[in-house]
TrEMBL record:
Keywords attached to this entry: DNA integration, DNA recombination
Gene Ontology molecular function: DNA binding
Domain of life: Bacteria
Domain Tyr recombinase: 101-270
Gene3D superfamilies in alphabetical order: Intergrase catalytic core (1.10.443.10)
Pfam families: Phage_integrase
BP GO terms, sorted: DNA integration; DNA recombination
CDD domains in the cross-refs: INT_Rci_Hp1_C
Keyword Nucleus on entry: no
Family per record: Belongs to the 'phage' integrase family.
Family annotation (InterPro entries): DNA_brk_join_enz, Integrase-like_cat_sf, Integrase_catalytic, Phage_Integrase
Name of the molecule in the record: Integrase
Keyword Secreted on entry: no
Length: 308
C-alpha cells in the first residue's frame, strides 16, 4: 500500500480531530515530503535512519524527531487496526536527549524588563500573565475561555468542556490575586484574542517583545512556565503541588473535589502572588481590543533601576 494513502487516511480519521492537530499535520507533511511515492514495504530500518538524518539536517532536536516518527507510527498502527495492512512495520524510537537545550529561566530583573515591554501588545500581555499565574502550556492558555473560570471557587479548569485529556494533562488551577483582574471579563470569546478573534500562536510577537526588551532569544513562551515552576520550588512549595499545577500529576476521583476547597493548591497560589509582589511592578489590566497601529511597539528603554 502507498505510504501516502496511510498518512492521508490517518489524518482524516484521527489527526484532524485531536487537540494536537497542528503538530500532526506538520509531521505528516514531513513524512510525505521525504517518502514521496514509497510504499509501506519500503520502511526498512536503514531507510528510516536516512529519514532521521534528513530531519536532523533541518536542525530538529532529537525529541522533536521522535515526535515526528511517532505520528507515522500511529498512522501505520491505525491502518493495521482497520485491516488495511497485514502488520505495521517497526518504527524506531529516538531515546537520546543529549542535544536538548536547557530550559531558560528568567531572573527577576529580566522578568521586569519582559513585562514592561510586553504591555505594548495587549493580547500578548494577557497571554503572559495567564502563563505566569497558571503555569499552563501555551496552547491551553490560548484556548482559555470564560466558561472555564469559576470565580466563586476561584479556580480555572485549563481543559475546556468536551476536550479529551491527553498525555499533556490540563489541570484545574487556583486563581491568584494577581490574575483575578485578567479573568474577570465575561464578555470575551477567549481571554487571549486579536481583533476579538481567538489566535493559535503568539510565537512571532513573543519573540519580537523579547528582542525589544533586549533579552536572550532563548526565551520562549515555555520559559515563563519553567521560570515559575523553579520559583515555586525555591519558595518551598511541595513538589506534589508544583506537579499538580504543571499537569504532571493526575488527581484521583476523590481528589478532584479538592478544587472546591478554599486552600486548594494554596501554597502555590501564595507563592505566585509573593513572586509578583517581589517584582514590585504595576501590572495594569489592559484592554484586549486593539488595532494594528495601536499595537505597534514603542521604543523600549531599560528602567534605570535595572542598569547595573
Amino acid at each position: 500500500m502507498p505510504l501516502a494513502t496511510v498518512l492521508i487516511r490517518y489524518w482524516d480519521r484521527h489527526g484532524a480531530n485531536v487537540a494536537s492537530h497542528d503538530t500532526q499535520r506538520f509531521a505528516l507533511k514531513l513524512w510525505n515530503e521525504f517518502w514521496g511515492e514509497a510504499t509501506v514495504a519500503d520502511l526498512s530500518i536503514p531507510r528510516q535512519r536516512e529519514f532521521r538524518t534528513w530531519l536532523k539536517a533541518r536542525d530538529y532536536k532529537n525529541s522533536y524527531v521522535d515526535r515526528i516518527l511517532s505520528v507515522g507510527r500511529a498512522a501505520l498502527n491505525l491502518a493495521w487496526k482497520w485491516g488495511e495492512i497485514t502488520s505495521p512495520p517497526f518504527i524506531e524510537h529516538v531515546s537520546d536527549r543529549s542535544d536538548a537545550k536547557e530550559a531558560y529561566r528568567l531572573k527577576k530583573s529580566e522578568m521586569r524588563r519582559f513585562l514592561s515591554a510586553v504591555q505594548e501588545w495587549p493580547h500578548l500581555y494577557t497571554f503572559s500573565m495567564l502563563m505566569l499565574n497558571t503555569l499552563g502550556r501555551p496552547e491551553a492558555v490560548l484556548d482559555l475561555a470564560p466558561a472555564q473560570v469559576d470565580l466563586e471557587y476561584r479556580s480555572i479548569n485549563l481543559n475546556p468542556k468536551g476536550r479529551k485529556q491527553t498525555k499533556k494533562y490540563r489541570p484545574t488551577v487556583p486563581i491568584t490575586d494577581t490574575l483575578m483582574p485578567f479573568v474577570f471579563d465575561r464578555k470575551v470569546v477567549r481571554f487571549v484574542t486579536w481583533r476579538d478573534k481567538p489566535i493559535r500562536s503568539v510565537k512571532k510577537t513573543f519573540a519580537r517583545a523579547v528582542k525589544n526588551a533586549g533579552l536572550s532569544a532563548d526565551i520562549t513562551p515555555y520559559s515563563l512556565r519553567h521560570t515559575m515552576a523553579a520559583e515555586l520550588r525555591g519558595r518551598g512549595v511541595p513538589a506534589w503541588e508544583v506537579e499538580g499545577l504543571l499537569g504532571h500529576r493526575r488527581p484521583g476521583v476523590t481528589e478532584s473535589y479538592a478544587v472546591f476547597s478554599p486552600d486548594y493548591l494554596s501554597a502555590g497560589r501564595a507563592a505566585i502572588d509573593g513572586y509578583f509582589a517581589d517584582l514590585g511592578m504595576e501590572l495594569p489590566r489592559v484592554s484586549a481590543n486593539c488595532v494594528p497601529v495601536a499595537c505597534q511597539p514603542k521604543p523600549f528603554t531599560i528602567p534605570r533601576t535595572e542598569v547595573m
